[in-house]
Amino acid sequence: MRWLKFTASGVTSWGLVENDEVVAIDGDPLGEWQRTSRTYPLGDVKVELPLIPRTFYCVGLNYLKHLKEAADKRGEIPAVPDRPEIGYRAQNALIAHDEDVVIPSFATDKIHYEGELVVVIGKKVKHLTEANAMDCVFGYTIGNDVSERSWQKADRSLWRSKNADTFKPMGPWIETEADLDKMETIVRVNGTETNRFVTGDMIFGVVPFLVELTKYFTLWPGDVIWMGTDGASPDIKHGDVVEIEITGIGKLRNRFVREGQ
Amino acid sequence: MRWLKFTASGVTSWGLVENDEVVAIDGDPLGEWQRTSRTYPLGDVKVELPLIPRTFYCVGLNYLKHLKEAADKRGEIPAVPDRPEIGYRAQNALIAHDEDVVIPSFATDKIHYEGELVVVIGKKVKHLTEANAMDCVFGYTIGNDVSERSWQKADRSLWRSKNADTFKPMGPWIETEADLDKMETIVRVNGTETNRFVTGDMIFGVVPFLVELTKYFTLWPGDVIWMGTDGASPDIKHGDVVEIEITGIGKLRNRFVREGQ
């Protein structure tokens, strides 16, 4: 199933995407719900942010090419993580599919995308095992971990570089049937392909992360885990449109605009 | 006003603490509300977590003694921050006043408290100025930024050390009338004073943080900013009770228990 949060006729609700139509749902996919008789052409609705997570987890370095790229820039030898470690992003930065990423006027030109698989948690769980870890996964969506690299270098943490308002597009919907082993991530800037990688080629996959995190943390319904990215991004300029496709899920597309231009 | 989230007779709601009584409120202090005729003795109600913030901000190093203590341990010269920088904590870790901090069975003995002033945001704001910054502050509460120091040393970020379940007690209530210039923070372990500092003796105060954060971030009602701590903590053991008092606000008290003991 493909769960879309959307607005039509002034009402925001959940819906199921079926072919090119949205069937409105009463209730919440993470709780009780039922189909209604209201349907809308997919192209006519405003796509909303699927959810605001209670806790917003994000893996920093989880693909070898991205790791090497980052280390090369620092003139260092890449240190491959020897265990799953997590970081966080901030809820203020989230925007929906088709909403604009607004680059602050005082940011440098070093604005980069990072296309990421997003795991959406569906159950309250702790102490997961390899055998039962995937039971808590409700579905998948797509994230763009937009970064301002000069701030990333200058700051003690990732506060400005990763969490400025609008720097975390997520969507367009949550797909419950996608097969992690078959996904490919493709990034296009203004329609031209700039990155392509096998989504599952992670240093640590979804299951090891779920097992490790839940040794310490309770995961709650609606929590999200952004799984990291591979490769590198060109500098994204005012007016560029970045589209992140993950096969089997969909396409997350956002225009980048510079404040005051 | 002193806003308490509480449970009595099986119902959770907001209330106003007046002397030793709680007056139940219909609605939400950050929105519409009105007093009811229901009152309860303060000692008889279950104190709940005041709120789960949308974004959970936390200042790392904001007091000179704490900074020096941390640098000394690393054999380094303390580097005093030259501008306000923020970090994040995770919502999963929050617990209420009087709930137990549960130390995982596999944690070391290096369990420390950090008594912190918590700023609770009441309005959706961006681009604050020195002149209007305080208008967005709804009130203050108290936080205990519990830390496992061996994990803090070992990890790439603060994920386990600061955010294990139950490591973020916050409460007991939100005080709207407290005067930042008159506060003193006092920590007691099993009733014996172990720290005392002037709460406002921050390297960067509340106003500079609000101005700097809102250059990049929209603050939302219910967001919290934990303002950092001074001094150092002894190792906290199974059964210890840590009480953090901030004068003019109240006392946040939690027992520490080690899992499996």
From TrEMBL, chains A, B:
<feature type="domain" description="Rv2993c-like N-terminal">
    <location>
        <begin position="1"/>
        <end position="47"/>
    </location>
</feature>
<dbReference type="InterPro" id="IPR018833">
    <property type="entry name" value="Rv2993c-like_N"/>
</dbReference>
<dbReference type="Pfam" id="PF01557">
    <property type="entry name" value="FAA_hydrolase"/>
</dbReference>
<dbReference type="InterPro" id="IPR011234">
    <property type="entry name" value="Fumarylacetoacetase-like_C"/>
</dbReference>
<dbReference type="GO" id="GO:0046872">
    <property type="term" value="F:metal ion binding"/>
</dbReference>
<feature type="domain" description="Fumarylacetoacetase-like C-terminal">
    <location>
        <begin position="56"/>
        <end position="256"/>
    </location>
</feature>
<dbReference type="Pfam" id="PF10370">
    <property type="entry name" value="Rv2993c-like_N"/>
</dbReference>
<keyword id="KW-0479">Metal-binding</keyword>
<dbReference type="InterPro" id="IPR051121">
    <property type="entry name" value="FAH"/>
</dbReference>
<comment type="similarity">
    <text>Belongs to the FAH family.</text>
</comment>
<protein>
    <submittedName>
        <fullName>2-keto-4-pentenoate hydratase/2-oxohepta-3-ene-1,7-dioic acid hydratase</fullName>
    </submittedName>
</protein>
<dbReference type="GO" id="GO:0016787">
    <property type="term" value="F:hydrolase activity"/>
</dbReference>
<dbReference type="GO" id="GO:0044281">
    <property type="term" value="P:small molecule metabolic process"/>
</dbReference>
<dbReference type="InterPro" id="IPR036663">
    <property type="entry name" value="Fumarylacetoacetase_C_sf"/>
</dbReference>
<keyword id="KW-0378">Hydrolase</keyword>
